[in-house]
Design a protein that fits this description.
mainly alpha, 55% helix, 3 helices
Length: 76
């Protein structure tokens, strides 16, 4: 993700909940935006790996079949 844009200073980062979340991730101070971008990219990669595993084991398809997402939802 070479062009991900994140910020750890200013704006909503001053709000208590957002500020606390940045503290929990230890994303404050110098290079904090780079660290936050790395965390976001790692989480996105983990989701992609999980999705690939679910698709290859047919869990993804089975879940959609079991929960009716394979059926058209046209109101008639």
């Amino acid at each position: 993700m070479p062009s991900i844009t994140v910020g750890t200073i200013g704006g909503a980062c001053r709000l208590p909940a957002q500020k606390r979340n940045l503290q929990l991730l230890n994303c404050q101070g110098e290079n904090s935006s780079k660290k936050l971008a790395e965390i976001i990219c790692a989480a996105a990669l983990a989701l992609e790996i999980s999705l690939t595993g679910a698709i290859s084991s047919h869990e993804f398809t089975n879940a959609h079949l079991n929960y009716g997402r394979s059926v058209s939802s046209d109101p008639e």
